[in-house]
Design brief:
The protein has 210 residues and is of the alpha/beta class. The chain has nine helices and seven strands. Bound molecules: BIS(adenosine)-5'-pentaphosphate (AP5). The site of BIS(adenosine)-5'-pentaphosphate (AP5) has 36 residues, from helix 1, helix 2, helix 3, strand 6 and helix 9.
Length: 210
């Protein structure tokens, strides 16, 4: 039973590594960005509300995210552990999470800003199952279709140069302070996210003592 938070800059590989780890540990992956993209695809009230915000690379309101997370982390199927990917996004969200549950480990995936564009400019994602690929670093077998469900892959609506710049700005202002926050709590583990996907996965496994 382990409750993990993953954070790091855009393109560091949070979604990629959280998906792998959740399969290996057999615990749920809670990817807040992907959950919101599913709301947009299903044209729900929440999806309509957040669609433009996300396209611009801005953050969704804390209260909205806190409500979503509170319902998840307190549900019975999450009591054996989970991996939070994309939440908390700032210190206010982290404090809210602390009121809900005790986080065991926080994985900070550290990637130099110079590498971010290379990762995001080649990303392809599956709109149906959320699987993540990269044209060069992690291509799907068919190139344009998902290996898991054969759906045609898409470029994310927020992987535009303008939205990426905005997301990085938000990361520096809002999310970077989480480093200090979790360091003080003694739960932070820093992972070098620059090597290839396999190597980063191995570093995470070793750092967690698994
Ligand atoms: P979200 O979906 O969480 O996006 P993000 O934080 O911008 O992070 P990314 O998904 O871009 O990067 P990642 O680190 O997951 O990288 P990935 O594994 O895909 O959030 C989207 C939006 O939702 C936010 O902007 C906001 O509007 C909203 N939102 C979500 N949560 C919120 C919250 N809590 N509060 C407020 N708003 C919220 O990898 C990237 C690429 O690199 C892929 O192509 C992958 O194949 C490749 N790759 C991965 N690892 C490697 C490697 N080691 N080597 C080479 N390539 C690699």
């Amino acid at each position: 039973m382990i409750k993990i938070v993953m954070f790091g800059p855009q393109g560091a590989g949070k979604g990629t590594q959280a998906d792998r780890l959740s399969r290996r540990l057999n615990i749920p992956h809670i990817p807040t960005g992907q959950m919101l993209r599913e709301e947009i695809a299903a044209d729900t009230k929440l999806g309509q509300k957040v669609s433009e915000i996300m396209k611009r690379g801005e953050l969704v309101a804390d209260w909205q995210m806190n409500e979503i997370i509170r319902d998840r982390v307190n549900a019975p199927e999450y009591q054996n552990g989970f991996i939070l990917d994309g939440y908390p996004r700032n210190v206010d969200q982290a404090e809210f999470l602390d009121y809900q549950i005790a986080v065991d480990k926080v994985l900070f995936l550290n990637l130099p800003k110079t590498e971010v564009m290379k990762r995001l400019s080649g990303r392809l994602t599956c709109p149906k199952c959320g699987a993540i690929f990269h044209k060069v670093f992690n291509p799907s077998i068919a190139g344009d279709k998902c290996d898991r469900c054969q759906t045609v892959l898409q470029v994310r609506a927020d992987d535009t140069p303008e939205a990426i710049a905005k997301r990085l700005e938000q990361y520096e202002e809002e999310t970077e302070p989480l480093h200090e926050y979790y360091l003080k709590k003694g739960v932070l583990i820093e992972i070098d996210a620059a090597p290839n996907i396999e190597q980063v996965g191995l570093s995470i496994w070793e750092a967690l003592g698994l």
